[in-house]
Amino acid sequence: MSTTFESLQKRVIRRPQQRHIPVLATLALLCVMYGAGVVRYTGFSDTQIVLNVFIDNGFLLVVGVGMTFVILTGGIDLSVGAVVALTTMIFASLVRAGWSPIAVLPVVLLVGALIGLAMGSIIHFFDIQPFIATLAGMFLARGLCYVISTEAIRIDNALWTSLADYKIRFGGFHISWSVVIALVVVLVGAYVLAYTRLGRNIYAIGGNQQSALLMGLPVGRTKIAVYTISGVCSALGGVLLTFYTSSGYGLHALGMELDAIAAVVIGGTVLTGGSGFLFGTVLGVLVLGLIQTIITFEGTLSSWWTKIVIGALLFAFIVLQRAVARRTS
Amino acid sequence: MAAIIKHRLFWPAVILVVLLVTNVFFSGSFFKVEFRDGHLYGSVIDILRASAPLGLVALGMTLVIATGGIDLSVGAVVAIAGALACLRISGLDDQNSVTGVLLAVGLALLLSLALGVWNGFLVATVGIQPIIATLILMVAGRGLAQLITDGQIITINSSPYKMIGAGYWLGLPLCVIIAVGVAVVAGLIVRRSALGLLLESVGGNAEASRLAGIKSRWLILIVYVFAGLCAGIAGLMISSNVSSADGNNAGLLIELDAILAVVIGGTSLAGGRFSIAGTILGAVIIKTLDITIYTVGIPPEVTLLFKAVVVVVLCLAQAPKFREKFQRRRPSAPATQAPQQKVEVTA
Predict the structure, then answer these.
(1) Is A322 on the interface with B (CB under 8 A)?
(2) Which residues are listed as membrane-spanning (chain A) (predicted)?
(3) Do B15 and B144 touch, CB atoms closer than 8 A?
(4) Distance CA B323, CA A44 (A)
(5) Beta-strand pair B172-173/B168-169
(6) Which segments of chain B have a pLDDT < 70?
(7) Taking the CB of residue A31, how many other CB atoms lie within 10 A of it?
């Protein structure tokens, strides 16, 4: 086909599909923020700064993956922060009781999966709103934390400390194991969403549950599956958090569900479900991490500015989503 | 008899009675109400006092939920209102000056109204999903509250301000009178005029009610403004009760308790059906649960576990699907229900 100017314009300028616009906007924002940081602060251009954002937010990334699955079906999971805290608590208490961390790992993942499974089952079988069911899950998990102990429990284990402190070095930079684990989780999650039957079912249910049901898709099984996945991701996130804090505490990850939801939304996933990408969630987590880094570099800004900026960003992205959705329809 | 059992508020009322009776077993003088120094004293009064702020927040939440929305930002508004009022009062030359306190209170309430307008604007005009629209203020609002208090806890010493949360009038706690007053006024306005019907119709089907000629946009804006105002009053009560404002912790998670109270009261989260009396009952149940746990001697940390159990049990008891499975066990034909989008409780 001969390329007239118009068709070229169509191809080049309208090339980004509507559904990609939010993710591209996040990417642009990330670049602007990073660029501004590099220009403004000395030492910001160090690649290690970016790697540190990953190191500090590995657990949020893993939790965000689970949250993305849930939100893509049009649901929401408020229990993630509490499950993260419960995981750190079970982990710390079992290690203190003399268990090997390697043996504890499957136990906590199983607990996370069970909580997710229970919430998913209640949501599906009894038609309870996800908001309420996961709220109950949140109360349950936080309550269980305090049943185990109201105090923080230190994790004193040579193996665990060495794993947590281990630095994977390359070319003068370093990352931690939690980054590797988080990236593996992201890759697996992205594969599942893009290339498996489960992934397509998730998008279908989020798009229109009624149609998905009429098409004969396993709506119930898929819904239960996403909450179970989110439970497992939260438990894994909790394990990564123990790398970071070396302790279990019932007040860990307070309000983390908000950070996770914010990361997913800033990453361009639509909260009514059916549209979004895991890559966007990675970008969303990076944006949150970068805000904190910039505020640290700025020095004079207090920590609560983080919240205000995140709120403003949420607003901007939600309005953007609305605009995109309106133009598509 | 069957009519009573089937009443929407039957099970919540049973739970409240069970909780109250449990208390009597552990503390014999539980129901004793004394009249001392011109005030009423007693555990029941304590429960009512503790329920007042939560009841107010839940009241605003009820109307929001009736339109099919939700307001997650009430906790942040509670913190902001308390913070602003305390900041103004701490800057007064004479913290006991009534006009100064009234001015501070008015300013705080005005700000709460403005925050409600912001939420309502996002939902009604911009057309953002309520849970997301109010999430913005929930996140940013905590930051704002800390900005107002500069990250500190502002302590004040003002007896007029203290009245709001801890004072008495005619022997009754003032905060209870305020909460009941707001609830009664709201109930009268909503039920004695067509407003309640309009709200329910918007919650049932916003598009259909728009076609029927209802200005749903204004109604939605109004309920969010009302929710903001209620949260603001509750914020004043909470900060006045402790004579200080803590931007970080005031009203933390109160949005969840409020939503819980609304759900316990039989209001459908899907919108279109609400009960103000039920919500107030729900708020009292939640606070009674808190106090019961203290009297029984269970470590207070376990409160959350109990709440989880109560939420699940109540939601299941009210869930149409659960009732159906429970009731239709006898008939041989399995209950093959067509997928329903919005199910009404058989009342």
Answers:
(1) yes
(2) 21-39, 59-92, 104-125, 131-149, 170-194, 224-244, 277-297, 304-324
(3) no
(4) 60
(5) antiparallel
(6) 1-2, 6, 318, 326-347
(7) 10
> How many domains in chain A?
1
Q: Give domain status of residue A53, yes or no.
A: yes
Report the predicted TM-score, pTM, of the whole model to 2 decimal places. 0.82
Q: Is B126 on the interface with A (CB under 8 A)?
A: yes
Q: Please say whether the beta carbons of A72 and A229 come within 8 A.
A: no
Q: Please, which residues 190-229 of chain B have a Cβ atom closer than 8 Å to chain A?
A: none
- Which class for A195: exposed (0-12), middle (13-18), buried (19 or more C-beta within 10 A)? exposed
> What DSSP assignment string belongs to A105-157?
HHHHHHHHHHHHHHHHHHHHHH---HHHHHHHHHHHHHHHHHHH-SS-EE---
Q: Which two tokens stand for residue B87?
A: 């900041």
Across the interface, do B263 and A127 touch by the CB < 8 Å criterion? no
A22, two tokens: 């939010």
Which among B110, B107, B124, B80 is positioned nearest to B222, based on CA atoms? B124
Could you tell me which residues are beta bridge partners of residue A247?
A154
- Comparing CB atoms, the residue among B126, B135, B140 nearest residue A261 is B135
Q: B171, B162, B155, B10: which is closest to B90 by C-alpha?
A: B155
Q: What's the pLDDT at A195?
A: 93
Specify if A140 maps to a domain. Answer: yes
CA torsion sign, A121 to A124 to A127 to A131?
Answer: positive
Domain range B49-320, its CATH number among 1.10.3470, 3.30.420, 1.10.10, 3.30.160: 1.10.3470
What's the pLDDT tens digit per position in A222-262? 999 999 999 999 999 999 999 888 888 888 888 788 889 98
Judged by a CB distance cut-off of 8 A, whether residue B79 touches chain A is no
Q: Are B73 and B134 in contact (CB under 8 A)?
A: yes
DSSP H helices in B150-252 = 159-166, 174-192, 195-204, 206-211, 216-242
> Six-digit token pair at B315?
């939601």
Is A4 a domain residue?
Answer: no
ipTM of the complex: 0.75
Whether A280 is in a domain gets the answer: yes
Cβ–Cβ < 8 Å for B229, B59? no
Q: How far is CA B57 from the centre of its chain?
A: 3
Cα–Cα distance between B31 and A201 in angstroms, integer? 56
- The per-residue pLDDT of chain A, averaged, comes to 87
A177 Cβ contact list (under 8 Å, min separation 6): A163, A164, A166, A168, A243
**Domain residue ranges in chain B:** 49-320
Q: Does B121 touch chain A (CB under 8 A)?
A: no
**CATH number for position A83:** 1.10.3470
The helix or strand, by DSSP H or E, that contains position A323, with its residue range, turns out to be: helix A304-328
Cβ neighbourhood burial of A257 (10 Å; 0-12, 13-18, 19+): buried
Whether A323 and chain B come into contact, CB under 8 Å, resolves to no
Per the CB < 8 A criterion, the answer to whether A26 and A287 are in contact is yes
What are A136-153's pLDDT values in tens digits? Answer: 898 889 889 888 888 888
Angle at A129 between CA A128 and CA A132, to 5 degrees: 95
Name the residue range of residue A53's domain.
Answer: 18-328
Give CA angle at B277 (B141, B226), nearest 5°. 30
Q: What is d(CA A177, CA A166) in angstroms, rounded to the nearest whole number? A: 7
